[in-house]
Amino acid sequence: MRKTAILLVLIIFSCKQHKFLKKNINSNIDSITISINKKDSLLTAEKKLKLFLANTEEVKVIAFNKGMIETSIPDSSICKKWILKREDVIQIIKKNRPISRKELHYLFDMNTCVYNGKIRYKNKNYNFTINSGGFIYLKYNDILLGCFTGDCTKYFLSTGEDY
Asked: Any idea where the domains of the chain sit in the sequence?
């Protein structure tokens, strides 16, 4: 009986150890694959962004509406006066430059005034959000575009702080 119990424990332990090793081997392969894919996807993202910005004539605005978060913050009253037109969306895309999430965080105001909508590009629909703080987020490839100076400033209540 004792020999059977010891044998059973050894079998269970060896099975668990085998699963552990197998899991580690697969885990390492998965992480290598993911790393390679992330690098490839960054290159693809840059290419898609350049292609998208070069072909803005293919972009159509199919939905467009103003949104606002009511707060006691002073920009809530200013939001009511902030007005964009549907055709402004394409101009905002053309006149703003790509920004990183870090730039968005440190250089732009997150205002309560936004316009939300959908664009159609290459027969697919993508959501967008324009924030009166000087930036636009396009769901297409998670594009962030920001305005610092120049012709784009007329579309926003504030713009990014140029560094």
From this structure: 1-54, 60-155
